Amino acid sequence: MATNPFLPGLILALAAWILPLAVRLLPARILSGVHSRVPILAEWTPWIRSIGLPYLGLLLGWLSSRDFGLTGHTAPEWIIGAAAAIVLGILLGRVCLRLSIGIGWGVIGDEARWTLYRAAVWPWVTYLPLAVAAALLATCAEFALARKFGGEKVIDEVGMLFLAHAAGSAVLFLLAHNFFLAMLFYLTAKIASSPDIQLSLRTILEKTIRK
């Protein structure tokens, strides 16, 4: 069960959501000046936003570790959640193969940020499905606005892969509310989407059948 609402956690989630939009609204000369003077900032900003802000919220007690999916799980929840993470990860991996698009390490940051949204909203709405739905809507709006500001299509192959990943992550949190299993979901998808691993598994299977 979610803990009592705490406003700083919600403000932190809003900051994580609005930060890239605010940066895009800055004049181009200011952005180029910052990048030229502090080039490492452009590289680290996405990680600070997606990993640093959730960690700050947990460290300061602005987010509940239970709401974030770090504690309080029963053995049945682990088992059911692990099975769901593997199944959903395989499905996401198949989508990657179908679209011929890989998923990178930045997905870990996405998972942490999406979990921040859920953990910040859940205590306020007190109903997990509603919190997950609100967070999913926020992530979709975030993605659509970023693509629109970047002059890219919202609904294309990248958009389809995003929807598959975001929906799978949301369903998994709804079933298990376990952040660690979100990592299993991602790693399973990474393995399932690798052509080399697919070929190796097929070779092993063929050798086993021949024996």
The domain count comes to 1
What's the helical proportion of residues? Answer: over 70%
Helix/sheet category = mainly alpha
Biggest sheet details: none
What is the averaged pLDDT score? 84
Strand content: under 5%
Please mark out the parts with pLDDT under 50 across 5 or more consecutive residues, or reply none. Answer: none
Would you list the SSEs in sequence order as H and E? HHHHHHHHHH
CA(first)-CA(last) distance: 52 Å
The beta-strand count equals 0
Q: How many H/I helices?
A: 10
What overall form do the CA principal axes indicate?
globular
> What's the gyration radius in Å?
19 Å
Task: Give the topology, please.
Layout: H1 7-24, H2 28-37, H3 39-59, H4 65-68, H5 75-99, H6 106-125, H7 128-149, H8 157-176, H9 179-192, H10 195-210
Question: How would you characterize this protein structure?
Answer:
The chain is mostly helical. The chain has one domain (7-210). It contains 10 helices and no strands. The model has no long low-confidence stretch (mean pLDDT 84).
Please supply descriptive tags for the structure shown above:
mainly alpha, 81% helix, globular, 10 helices, 211 residues
Task: Give a short synopsis of this structure.
The protein has ten helices and no strands.
